[in-house]
Design a protein that fits this description.
Layout: H1 2-9, H2 19-23, H3 28-35, E1 40-41, H4 45-49, E2 52-57, E3 60-66, H5 71-80, E4 83-86, E5 91-98, H6 99-106, H7 121-124, E6 130-135, E7 144-152, E8 160-167, H8 172-182, E9 187-190, H9 195-206, E10 208-210, E11 218-220, E12 246-248, E13 255-258, E14 266-269, H10 273-280
Parallel strand pairs: 1-3
Antiparallel strand pairs: 2-3, 4-14, 5-8, 5-13, 6-7, 7-8, 9-12, 10-11, 12-13
Length: 289
C-alpha cells in the first residue's frame, strides 16, 4: 500500500521548457523579417552577427569590426590564400537599350580626361569591369557625383545592350536621378509592391503574438503550427518601398532598373582567388538548336 501510494504521489515531470526555449520565437523567419523593417540584412548577416560588431548605415545592417583579434589571419589570407568580402550592399543600376543611344548619353556624365569611359574597347566587349567618376550632365569638371564601377553584358548579335552600374548606397539616389534625367526615363515600367510591406501585413494577420501574464507566447493562426513561414525579405535599404523600381523612356527606348539586393556581389582578394572560383563554378552545358 505504501508503494502504491508513493507511485501516485510521484510528481509528473515538468513539461515547462527552459527560459531560452520559451523566449525563442516560434517562427524565426517572421521574426527576422520583423527585425529588418528599418535596416535590411545581407544574406551573410547571421554569420557576421556572431563574429562582428554590427553597425546600421545606409539602410543596411553591416559588420564593422571583428569581435576577436583576426587582423593577422585576414592579412595572411590576403597575402597567401583568399579573403572574401560581402559587398552586396552596393546598389546595382541596370540600363537596357540601343548601344549607340546608351554611349551617346553616358558620354555626358563622364570625361576622357579622367581616364577610362564607358566606350573603352576592353570594357565595351564585356570581358573586363571598368571604373570611373561620374559628373552631372555636361558639368565636368564641376559637380562630381562620385566613383562607380560598371560592366557590359557581352554582345549577342543584337544592337540592344545591357549595362550594370554599381554605386555606393550613399550616392545611389543622386546618380539614379541623373541617369533618369539624361535618358528621359520618367514613366515607371513596373509598379513595385514591396515584400517587406506584405511580410509585415502577413505577420500582423497571421502571426499575432498574445502576451499575457502567466501564459506562454502563442500564435493566433488558422492552421496553427502548419502555417507557412513568411518569405525572406528581398529589398533595398535605400529605396522607398512604395516607389517603382523600373523606368522606361518613350523617346529613347532606354529602360533603367534598380537591381539592388537582387544581384549579390562578393570580392575575393588573394593569390588563390582564381583557383577557388575555378573549383567552385562549373561551366553549364549549352545546347544550341
Amino acid at each position: 500500500k505504501q508503494a502504491e501510494k508513493a507511485v501516485h504521489q510521484k510528481k509528473e515531470q515538468s513539461k515547462t521548457k527552459c527560459r531560452k526555449a520559451r523566449r525563442r520565437h516560434i517562427n524565426l523567419v517572421a521574426e527576422f523579417n520583423h527585425r529588418q523593417r528599418k535596416n535590411i540584412w545581407l544574406e551573410t548577416h547571421i554569420w557576421h552577427a556572431k563574429r562582428f560588431h554590427m553597425v546600421k548605415k545606409w539602410g543596411y545592417c553591416l559588420g564593422n569590426s571583428p569581435t576577436e583579434k583576426s587582423y593577422r589571419a585576414c592579412y595572411r589570407a590576403m597575402t597567401k590564400q583568399c579573403l572574401l568580402q560581402d559587398l552586396s550592399y552596393y546598389c546595382c543600376l541596370e540600363l537596357k537599350g540601343k548601344e549607340n543611344e546608351l554611349l551617346k548619353q553616358l558620354a555626358r556624365i563622364c570625361s576622357i580626361d579622367t581616364g577610362l569611359t564607358f566606350q573603352e574597347a576592353s570594357c565595351l566587349s564585356g570581358r573586363f569591369e571598368g571604373s570611373l567618376n561620374l559628373y552631372r550632365a555636361d558639368r565636368y569638371p564641376e559637380d562630381m557625383l562620385g566613383p562607380v564601377t560598371f560592366i557590359w553584358k557581352p554582345r549577342d548579335g543584337s544592337e540592344n545592350r545591357q549595362l550594370w552600374i554599381w554605386v555606393h548606397p550613399a550616392l545611389k539616389q543622386d546618380i539614379l536621378k541623373e541617369l533618369k534625367a539624361i535618358f528621359q526615363c520618367s514613366e515607371p515600367e513596373e509598379i513595385y509592391i514591396s515584400e517587406p510591406v506584405t511580410a509585415s501585413v502577413q505577420e500582423e494577420k497571421q502571426v499575432e503574438v498574445v502576451t499575457s501574464l502567466g501564459n506562454k507566447r502563442k500564435k493566433e493562426d488558422k492552421e496553427g503550427e502548419k502555417a507557412v513561414p513568411v518569405k525572406k525579405i528581398i529589398g533595398d535599404g535605400t529605396r522607398d518601398p512604395f516607389q517603382s523600381y523600373s523606368w522606361i523612356s518613350r523617346t529613347t527606348g532606354i529602360a533603367i532598373s534598380d537591381r539592388s539586393m537582387e544581384i549579390l556581389r562578393y570580392r575575393l582578394i588573394g593569390p588563390l582567388s582564381h583557383s577557388i572560383l575555378t573549383e567552385t563554378l562549373k561551366a553549364a552545358s549549352v545546347q544550341t538548336v
